[in-house]
Structures are given as C-alpha cells and as structure tokens.
Design brief:
With 454 residues, this protein is mainly α. The protein has 3 domains: 3-122, Alpha Horseshoe (MgtE N-terminal fold), CATH 1.25.60.10; 138-245, CBS-domain; 271-453, Orthogonal Bundle (Tetracycline Repressor, domain 2), CATH 1.10.357.20. The protein contains 23 helices and 6 strands. It has helices at residues 3-10, 14-21, 26-33, 39-47, 51-58, 63-72, 75-84, 87-96, 99-108, 111-121, 128-131, 145-155, 180-185, 192-195, 209-219, 239-257, 272-289, 291-299, 301-305, 310-340, 349-382, 390-420, 430-453, and strands at 138-139, 164-168, 174-179, 203-204, 223-227, 233-238. The strands form 2 sheets. Strands 1-2-3 form a 3-stranded mixed beta sheet. A hairpin with a 5-residue loop joins strand 2 (164-168) and strand 3. The protein is elongated and about 90 Å long. The protein starts with a helix and ends with a helix.
Length: 454
Amino acid sequence: MYKELLEQIETNQFKEVKSALVEMHVQDIADLLEQVDPPKNLVKVFKLLPKDMGAEVFSYIESDIQKKLVDALSDKDLSFLVEEMYIDDAVDFVAEMPANIVERTLKASTKETRQLINKYLGYGPETAGSIMTPEFIDLKEQMTKEACLKRIKKLGEDVETINVLYVTDSARVLKGVLSIRQLLLADDDTTVGEIMHDNVVFAETSTDQEEISNLFKQYDFLALPIVDSEKRLVGIVTIDDVIEVIEEETTEDISKMAATTPNEKPYLKTSTFKLWINRVPWLVLLLVSSTFTGLIISKNETLLSTGIYGILLTACMPMIMGTGGNAGGQASATIIRSIVLNEISFKDLFKVMWKEFRLSLLLGFSLAVVCFGKIMLIDGLLFNTPGVDWLSALVISAAMFLAIVMAKIVGCTLPLIAKKCKLDPAVMASPFITTILDTLSLLVYCQLALAFLM
C-alpha cells in the first residue's frame, strides 16, 4: 500500500512525500511511519506534517515509535506536541514511556497540562477515570440556542466531540444532556433546560472500563459522562476509547482462555523471553494439576494392562477424556461469553445448570450411541480388538455418557463461581476445564470398568 511512498522516502524525495501526506488519513500516516526505516527518516517524515496534524498522528502510532520520535524532537517541538494532543491521548502516551521521557515530557508541558496529566495518572488502571477526557462542552440550563451555538463555535475545535452536549449547574453538577441535533432543530428562543434530558446515564471515575463498554453497548452511546463522588462532571468517555477497551478486554480474555498471561505488545514485538515468562507458569500449573490423572491410571494399572478387556479399555481412554474435555470447553466458552455480555450472572446459576443438564442428556445419549457403534463396528469388526463385546461396549458408552454430563455441569458452573469470587471467568476456560474433566472422566471410567468388567 505504501511501497511508492517508502521508495520516495528512501530516495529523499520529501517534497513529493509531503504533498502525499497532507492528503492521507491520520491513521494511514501512522501505519506508514511504523514502516519507515532508519529512524532518521522517521523523524524527517514526521516533521513534514503540519504541527496540529502531527499531534493527531502521534496518538495513533505504537509506543516504541513514539519513543524514537520523542528522543529526536526538541523540547519546543515536544511541548507543542503534548499541548496539541487530547489529554487522554497524552496520558496514555506518558503512562507507557520510561521515566526519563516522562520527566522530559512533563517539563515541556504547561503547568495546566502537567496538572491534568498527573491527575489522570492518579486514577486506577482500567477505570473510567483513566480513559476519560476533560475536553467536552458543557452548557447551563438558562442558556438560549444562540448562546449555545456561540459556545460551541468557541470551544468546538478543542474538544473530542460536539455531538453530545452536557448541562451542569454552577457547581459543575451534572443536570442533563442533549444532542447537537436537538439544539439545531429547536426554536431560537428555546432554553437548554426546556429541551435537555434530565434522566442521564453516567458513570463514576472508579467504574471499571469493562462496565463502561457494556453501557455503550446497552444504550448505543457515542459518549458517556463521567462524574466524581459528588456527581460533578469531570470528563467524558468517547466511542473511540471504548473500542480500544473492547479490543484490550477481548485480547485479555482470549489469552486467559488459552492459559497464557495477557501481553500488551504485539506478538512480533514481544521478546521470546517475555513470551516464555507469560506461558510457563500456566503450563507448570496445568502439569502439576494433571498429576491426579496419572495417579488414577497408576492405581488402576492392573485393570488397564491385564485381562481380556485391558487393551480395549486403554485404547478407549483418550476418547473418553478428550470428548469430556471438549464438551466442557464448549460449555465454559459459551458461559464466559454470556457473562462478558452481561446476559447471565451468578443468580442465574441454577437456570444455567438445568439448561446444560438437559443439553448434556441429549448430547451424552447421542455420543454414547455413536461410541457403542464405533466400538462394535470399528474396534470389533475392522480391527478385531480383543475384549470387544456388547457388555464392554455398553460400559464404555455409559462412561462416555456420564463424562459428558459431568463436563457440561462443571463447564457451566465454574465460570459463574469464578465471577462470584471476583475472579476473571476466562481463567476457568478450556485448559483448566479439560484438566479437571480428565480426572473426573477417568475416575468414572475406571470405576464402571471395575464394577462390570472385572
């Protein structure tokens, strides 16, 4: 996509590059900058941008590229850059930089900007306060349409959105909300108090960012007001910030469901050592927990290694464990996703269990029938495996049935219990579910075989 531009940069055709840049979207420019090499060309290209455009582009590029640019910028350029950025973007930038760059950035900022950045850094991570911006337009109830439009024209360039307007009193307490459309369609002599909605949905600075994203989904918001403990309006969260939150939360859930520690950097930019650190604790934990499976096999060694049914029972063991683990993984993934979407909660535990129990009976019976046929036809007739008869096939099929019933119950309950215990439900996903169900399935399998085949 950027092949021609990159070639022009390498051959120092910066006049042509500058003409092309001003016609591009800021996010496309950010993508281009991440492909520019060596670093000296990166700085040259960035300085070709108009300063206000450069500040917007800067907020979209990766932190390692930001660091290279900051190292090459003068204090004067850095000061302008920080002042032109929206405060939430400036806070995100400062939060990801090493201490020496943070110190230099704060020194280059104005006193007002420095105070705002320090204030926002004081909010807890992954809260509404950490992702909100103070750049919004607030109105008063007694203001007329004309007065409102004048205020919007005056402040509109410096705020993230003018689509949603907020109404506050003299103490900055949130009183109402209205859209720019409502204002434009109102009569000239109409006051804000007459057209605003006073039933405002809002969140506090301490609200978890995942809950913020749920509010956006529930109400189709473009922006959400954020208040302090006294209901004073201190900022807003906009839809672009929420999209980033959703991406972060989804990535985190996927990582935990795969039994790895979530990583903030892209895969190719993460060192092998860091990936090892993220993965090895989980694998060690799963390895230790699978010890119970080994103990069960060791205890039933005589059953599985001798007698007429030994070969058949050993051959079918992976099938029972694998099917149970897969069934439990299906249930846990479905429940975890429903929890994330706020479709179910712990109070629905028994409803969920009853639903999954009925489902497990249907699935268990279906797979038990298939298992019975597989043992009789494939193991018995095709491979002539020793020990295949109707009794052994029935016992193994019964174990399959019970394994699936247990899998569905365990898979649907553990995520809900984890959520109730203030743990991330994603932790109770496939790897842990599979390890637990391997143990339970094998235990039931061996007990049935001992009861009916020995």
